[in-house]
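Comment on both lines for my students:
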Amino acid sequence: MNKGTVIFLNGTSSSGKTSISKELIRILEEDFMYLSVDHAISGVNDMLMNMFGEHITREEIRRIEDEEIIEKPVISLFHHYILAFSMAGKNIIVDHVLVDSKWLEECVQLLSDTRTFLIGVHCPINELERRERDRGDRPIGLASAQFTIVHENFQYDLEVNTHMNSVSECAVTIRDFIKTNEPSVLQTFHTEAKEPSQ
């Protein structure tokens, strides 16, 4: 079975990844599934609330998250889901925030042999902060905290900017790029990781 195409969007909260994903699903000729790291984490949080009810509070869940008791295995499981769907021939749009170098390392290890396009979604900090305030559903300062690290030392197959271009324009750019190109960045990362350091 042919491996599915993975459109892997990496960017800060409020950078426009979800909006681009929805537009891509609308305009792409083939069917694509949408996988979000936010949904993966919030799903576990909801499960804890259902299991423990009044015996666990949101503050306790945040403490568990801070101590990475849940986050590490959930993020790793999320990465393995991406691989599993691709290997099953499913096309996927991934909405992620790679703020930990180990997350990128795991994605490189798992996905370097798949057709995964690593795409950077950019937006200037002042616009991110405005969107964050207007949305009202994200902690104030989240985008700023992620801004300096989410693209640090990254290379991408393609980069888009949701401040300079509309969501529709970004989605069309991505669609047209994957039609006429093959991904290379994850494979390059994987090759470099295997090379002995000088």
